């Protein structure tokens, strides 16, 4: 079975398949040159970037860049690398290749090959010639050698109003008459070079005999290579001058090219030292200065001789153009979410330096990460500013580091806005309160407060939406208060309302149950309703007592509490009799006219069939026996009474029977109406019921 879950494969770092490696490089290289092609692949097919992470020695003049027209990275030597085998004979580069998630490292070695400079065998030297020497005379033969080749060439590197020439064989030939010269010492510089144009320059001095001696500058011309980071106040050159005539006073004339060099260098006549008085800057574009020295003794002059100063690039720290940057975004973002760019602007005077960003401080709990290449900040957690969990404003110190390890810092203020993701929450689902029924209107009863932990969207509006709204309301401080008197409730009545808490689109609900109880000192009979039901109860109790006394009396008086006859409706059926007839019969009267209620008598029930009418009876139809034998009727109670009077003793009752046939005098009664009536002597009454 397959489900819809994502399968997450672990990321794999880039692969550099041809490192470590090493190449040989001649120190004569001066142009940007491809030294090695890196073979880099990424199993995840991510974009890979390669840089020189570090070098030994530091600030090695190499760089990593894409080979034009390909997607491969190559190791290049920089333009004008100033290789010097005598200073550094090997460079070791640590190369990093990254796909922004993982980094792969490799080492690359560059072994420098020294260029053997041709060297002179017999100069520097001083040669004495007379002012009378003829033109074309070989005045000196320069000898030189090269360990790598025998193909060397000679040339005169410098001389003023040159009197001499040099042949390819090294012969120095006088080409101008010196008969009238006043120069006592004439100096030329001889240069020898091999096929690679590597040269060596050395001074050859001529002492002219027979003339006045002039001062001699011994260590010029000269070229010096100095780093731009040389400290101010450093003595970078000391002039060496020879004065043959000890009585002469030497004067010095210094020239500067370009003219701005006069502000950077100063010659101290007393110490004959050239001092640096202003910092050098390779990136300013002026990387070479020429300083000319002229020395005279009042009559003869030496020079001008030139000192050439080449300024070498030194690694300089990157610089942020602003001290503070600002980023604003919302909280509650996913892990890995990229915040808006701070738009860092960083300057680095060193061309080709790669910059790496990092968080230096301000994030001790590591809630943020930063892309080392782009400087884009990302969330390392789900950032939540609600309820004070995390600060809404964070100040991060961002560091940028160049290839040489120099760095700079700036501040980034990250402001995170509330996203309103929480709803208000009541402190309880149900609130309970108890108030007396004389509680004042407009008085607060119970606080039904809720909280919204959103950082800014946390204003809550309260309202009542259901229940006994006619008695209560809620204010903006969450207090439920009374708006109508509850004096009518005096028997512990519970009133309820439903409360709504609303906050910026989110709603929550709770309930408040308020028990209304009688006020302290309130009497039961302070309320008309209580008086009425209490009176009704008293009357009912009195009637029950009277009935009980009456039944006891009947039992004592007659021996039973209820009628002994067998009615189908038990004792609860109303017995109806012809009271007038009973009275007349007891008195022996033959003719009776009285009121009565007509009944239709059946076996199981009595049903009323007519309203009271006058009835006439025929005396001759009534037969009353003088003495009738008593009949035993069982217990003295029947029907419903048996449920309450089972404790009464058994008794025997005599029953007499007569037949009565009344004759109705009205047309709405049946004629004749015949039935059997039972006479009970001890009750002195008739029972209108079928005799069984």
TrEMBL record:
One of its GO terms (cellular component) is membrane. It is found in: Membrane. This is Cadherin EGF LAG seven-pass G-type receptor 2. GO terms for molecular function: calcium ion binding. Signal peptide: none annotated. The chain crosses the membrane at residues 531-556. CDD domains: Cadherin_repeat (cd11304). It comes from Mizuhopecten yessoensis. The keyword Nucleus does not apply.
């Amino acid at each position: 079975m397959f489900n819809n879950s994502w399968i997450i494969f672990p990321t794999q770092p880039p692969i550099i398949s041809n490192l470590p490696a090493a190449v040989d490089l001649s120190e004569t290289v001066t142009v940007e040159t491809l030294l090695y092609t890196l073979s880099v692949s990424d199993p995840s097919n991510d974009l890979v970037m390669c840089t020189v992470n570090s070098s030994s020695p530091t600030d090695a003049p190499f760089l990593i860049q894409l080979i034009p027209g390909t997607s491969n990275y190559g190791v290049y030597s920089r333009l004008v690398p100033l290789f010097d085998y005598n200073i550094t004979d090997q460079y070791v580069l640590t190369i990093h290749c990254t796909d922004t998630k993982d980094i792969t490292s490799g080492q690359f070695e560059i072994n420098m090959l020294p260029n053997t400079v041709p060297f002179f065998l017999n100069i520097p030297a001083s040669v004495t010639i007379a002012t009378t020497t003829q033109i074309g005379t070989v005045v000196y033969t320069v000898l030189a050698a090269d360990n790598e080749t025998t193909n060397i060439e000679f040339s005169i590197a410098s001389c003023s109003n040159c009197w001499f020439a040099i042949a390819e064989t090294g012969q120095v030939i006088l080409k101008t008459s010196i008969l009238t010269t006043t120069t006592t010492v004439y100096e030329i510089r001889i240069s020898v070079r091999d096929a690679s144009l590597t040269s060596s320059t050395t001074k050859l001095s001529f002492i002219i005999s027979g003339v006045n001696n002039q001062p001699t500058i011994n260590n010029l011309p000269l070229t010096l290579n100095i780093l731009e980071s040389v400290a101010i106040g450093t003595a970078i050159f000391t002039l060496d001058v020879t004065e043959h005539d000890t009585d002469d006073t030497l004067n010095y004339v210094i020239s500067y090219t370009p003219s701005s060099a006069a502000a950077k260098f100063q010659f101290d006549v007393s110490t004959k030292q050239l001092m640096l008085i202003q910092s050098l800057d390779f990136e300013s574009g002026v990387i070479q200065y020429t300083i000319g020295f002229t020395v005279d003794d009042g009559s003869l002059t030496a020079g001008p001789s030139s000192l050439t100063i080449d300024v070498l690039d030194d690694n300089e720290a990157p610089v942020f153009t602003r001290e503070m940057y600002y980023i604003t975004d919302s909280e509650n973002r996913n892990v890995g979410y990229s915040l808006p760019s701070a738009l860092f602007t960083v300057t680095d005077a060193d061309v080709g330096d790669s910059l790496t960003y990092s968080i230096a401080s301000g994030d001790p709990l590591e809630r943020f990460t930063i892309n080392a290449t782009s400087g884009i900040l990302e969330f390392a957690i789900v950032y939540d500013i609600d309820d004070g969990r995390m600060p809404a404003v964070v100040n991060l110190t961002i560091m940028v580091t160049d290839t040489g390890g120099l760095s700079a810092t700036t501040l980034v203020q990250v402001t995170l806005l509330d996203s309103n993701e929480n709803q208000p929450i009541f402190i309880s689902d149900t609130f309970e309160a108890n108030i007396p029924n004389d509680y004042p209107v407009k008085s607060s009863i119970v606080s039904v407060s809720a909280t919204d932990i959103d950082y800014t969207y946390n204003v809550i509006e309260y309202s009542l939406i259901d229940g006994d709204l006619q008695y209560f309301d809620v204010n903006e401080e969450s207090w439920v208060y009374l708006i109508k008197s509850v004096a009518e409730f005096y028997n512990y009545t519970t009133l309820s309302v439903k409360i709504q808490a609303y906050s910026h689109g989110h709603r929550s609900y709770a309930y408040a149950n308020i028990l209304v109880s009688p006020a302290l000192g309130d009497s039961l009979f302070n309320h008309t309703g209580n008086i009425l039901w209490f009176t009704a109860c008293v009357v009912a109790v009195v009637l029950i007592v009277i009935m009980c006394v009456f039944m006891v009396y009947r039992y004592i008086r007659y021996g039973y509490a209820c009628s002994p006859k067998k009615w189908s409706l038990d004792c609860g059926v109303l017995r109806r009799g012809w009271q007038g007839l009973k009275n007349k019969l007891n008195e022996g009267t033959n003719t009776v006219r009285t009121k009565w209620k007509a009944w239709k008598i059946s076996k199981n029930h009595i049903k009323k069939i007519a309203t009271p009418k006058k009835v006439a009876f025929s005396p001759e139809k009534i037969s009353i026996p003088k003495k009738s034998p008593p009949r035993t009727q069982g217990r003295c109670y029947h029907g419903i009474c048996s449920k309450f009077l089972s404790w009464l003793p058994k008794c025997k009752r005599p029953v007499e029977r007569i037949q009565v046939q009344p004759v109705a005098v009205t047309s709405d009664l049946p004629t004749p109406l015949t039935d059997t009536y039972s006479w009970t002597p001890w009750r002195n009454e008739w029972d209108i019921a079928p005799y069984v």
